[in-house]
UniProtKB/TrEMBL annotation:
GO terms for cellular component: axon terminus; early endosome membrane; external side of plasma membrane; GABA-ergic synapse; glutamatergic synapse; Golgi apparatus; late endosome membrane; lysosomal membrane. InterPro entries: CBS_dom (IPR000644), CBS_dom_sf (IPR046342), Cl-channel_core (IPR014743), ClC (IPR001807), ClC3 (IPR002245). The keyword Metal-binding does not apply. Belongs to the chloride channel (TC 2.A.49) family. ClC-3/CLCN3 subfamily. It is a multi-pass membrane protein. Keywords: Antiport, ATP-binding, CBS domain, Cell membrane, Chloride, Endosome, Glycoprotein, Ion transport, Lysosome, Membrane, Nucleotide-binding, Repeat, Transmembrane, Transmembrane helix, Transport. The gene is CLCN3. It comes from Chrysemys picta bellii. Strongly outwardly rectifying, electrogenic H(+)/Cl(-)exchanger which mediates the exchange of chloride ions against protons. The CLC channel family contains both chloride channels and proton-coupled anion transporters that exchange chloride or another anion for protons. The presence of conserved gating glutamate residues is typical for family members that function as antiporters. It comes from the Eukaryota. Coiled coil: none annotated. This is Chloride channel protein. The chain crosses the membrane at residues 126-150, 214-236, 256-277, 284-301, 313-337, 386-408, 428-447, 498-519, 531-552, 572-597.
Amino acid sequence: MESEQLFHRGYYRNSYNSITSASSDEELLDGAGVIMDFQTSEDDNLLDGDASIGTHYTMTNGGSINSSTHLLDLLDEPIPGVGTYDDFHTIDWVREKCKDRERHRRINSKKKESAWEMTKSLYDAWSGWLVVTLTGLASGALAGLIDIAADWMTDLKEGICLSALWFNHEQCCWGSNETTFEERDKCPQWKTWAELIIGQAEGPGSYIMNYIMYIFWALSFAFLAVSLVKVFAPYACGSGIPEIKTILSGFIIRGYLGKWTLMIKTITLVLAVASGLSLGKEGPLVHVACCCGNIFSYLFPKYSTNEAKKREVLSAASAAGVSVAFGAPIGGVLFSLEEVSYYFPLKTLWRSFFAALVAAFVLRSINPFGNSRLVLFYVEYHTPWYLFELFPFILLGVFGGLWGAFFIRANIAWCRRRKSTKFGKYPVLEVIIVAAITAVIAFPNPYTRLNTSELIKELFTDCGPLESSSLCDYRNDMNASKIVDIPDRPAGTGVYSAIWQLCLALIFKIIMTVFTFGIKVPSGLFIPSMAIGAIAGRIVGIAVEQLAYYHHDWFIFKEWCEVGADCITPGLYAMVGAAACLGGVTRMTVSLVVIVFELTGGLEYIVPLMAAVMTSKWVGDAFGREGIYEAHIRLNGYPFLDAKEEFTHTTLAADVMRPRRSDPPLAVLTQDNMTVEDIENLINETSYNGFPVIMSKESQRLVGFALRRDLTIAIESARKKQEGIVGSSRVCFAQHTPSLPAESPRPLKLRSILDMSPFTVTDHTPMEIVVDIFRKLGLRQCLVTHNGIVLGIITKKNILEHLEQLKQHVEPLAPPWHYNKKRYPPSYGPDGKPRPRVNNVQLNPIAEEREETEEEVHLLNSTTL
């Protein structure tokens, strides 16, 4: 009978096989990257490690993954707060998935009892689709609002529409009958600030007044943006993607996806883009969409009470954010899969696609740009590319990789300097200085004065008969044969002038983007990187075009480029360069190619894009494998274990576990020999977030693991709700309470909060396997044992510190096999048996404990990093 009860409670020894009976890949935790904080005090200590354990099945004691499913069943009623998480803590992926399976079983078992239970079951089944639908609707609506407001405020720096104040420059002149083809942007309804203030439309006075007003509005918008961020929502600054990656990996940052952050980020994103700073709104739109997903998830208990399920919604929300940022629903799904998500089951893939679809549909319905497109710089090309052009495309990929490597190193160095100097204490001043320098330098150059999205649009656009840009100022050959496409022509003075201006704009964008990304306003990196690549690509495209025109008899042009034919498309080079530079910075590959492909609407240019993006990634990886988001995660100390990194060293679990030789002994609990006062003293005297529970001080065999938070909550709850619980009450973690004297106070049973199957490894387990286990199972920590006796603990923080040390040191050669048989962890005596413990106090070592040779001591010290 007892074994049957244990079987139903998930403690049966053979129930490990339950993992193989999971109904879907959603139930197998194969990609959860659980993370740890290097900076916060809460997670800094779990037996010299990090956040405490939840529940993990073990390969060594036969414990079941379902043991946490009935974590609270042994209590008469659940203890409020047990199983929840504090701020800056890591979630327990395994426990959260077990809780969700138990909830699902409970709903299925009751749905046939009544119509109400059946309705609740249907509501639970459809809640996932409802929450992603609401997220997509909100994301699309907010993106349209941001686009319209940013365009209007950007044009406000130059003038105002008197006939309708809410119109931007382009909309103001739509209904005018007095515009000309050459000066289509000039109409009586639109007044510059010089015309309104001094009554002059031309001349030096007009130029100076427009210059002053441009700087005034830029500084005003930047100051208002940084002030709102500083006062109301400090989390609204930056791109948000590094933090989103950290949160999706299992870390909790309270308020980062809250309503105040959403509101302030939406407002300040418009202000930051309108200020003319070298930043974009595409990255922050992912943060905005994730805020929407987080807020709507609280409407559904299925997601509000389960942190792992909530992260499935956030993955779908990030796909919706990229969908409205670039008008690329499929690219958004791939971006979520490739760049930000760690746990991405098939069901989340479908819901991400649906959320991206809904968001794109809403944005298309709003039509913020008036061109029936989702983005301003949508283009279509009709000229095919030729094999020779792969060479300049690859050169653009090399430039993108070099730009990415330079930007990552320069920006991280500047951000690190900002953190370590007094300059970082004055974020408002920094934003004002950067905005002032940007405005002063940007105004004289028409290409830097433009909104960055409009600049990309002009660079992407191919020269046609209706184009009046100086980039299309070619000398027309009247004797050329009339064909449908405009043939390659010699460049005019306007083109050469534009090239010089673009070269200056390229230098300006490179320098200012380094100093802008990371300031305390919403700042995306997608658009500035694409602008830099588009400028370089357009310059290369014009150069190749002119080379083909003047040297069409060269063998590389003779076979496919005839005189008077349209051979080269400079706009295509701009698009390829934009993709290469963005790939060099972010190290995205598949999702980036699909996003740019959706921007162009044609499959014909997939090969040039793939060649440039892969070249960019290879060149960038030659200087460092980290993308800009991973670099900022490491800079900010976010607890993130990157699944892309490879562990190739030969250290063992005993080399990394805590306690070390010079550390205090391992703090443990006994299953029935400690009092409430003993546990409270242990909690008060230590800062660990969890404690192994052993059978007794004599046997020291592992029983389970208890969380510090759960212990505190359970003892406080017992003092309030149970009579007779005092400091001298015996605490029992065992199944049966031991016999106590009659005069003893009432014992406190805490077996319900005990993790009966913590994940364990032996002391000789290679760290390569341990790191892989942490990555794929989302563990928060695992215990290190020897023949069932607990020796120490390895937390995610220990692994991160170990990886960082290995990067800074050259690993010594692996010690010989017989060396590992001689050495013992510090918890052992000279005979290889564990030393006796009294609770958490380790007895003094025996005098003849260590008898290693000098060679062994040297090997031990060199391999224990």
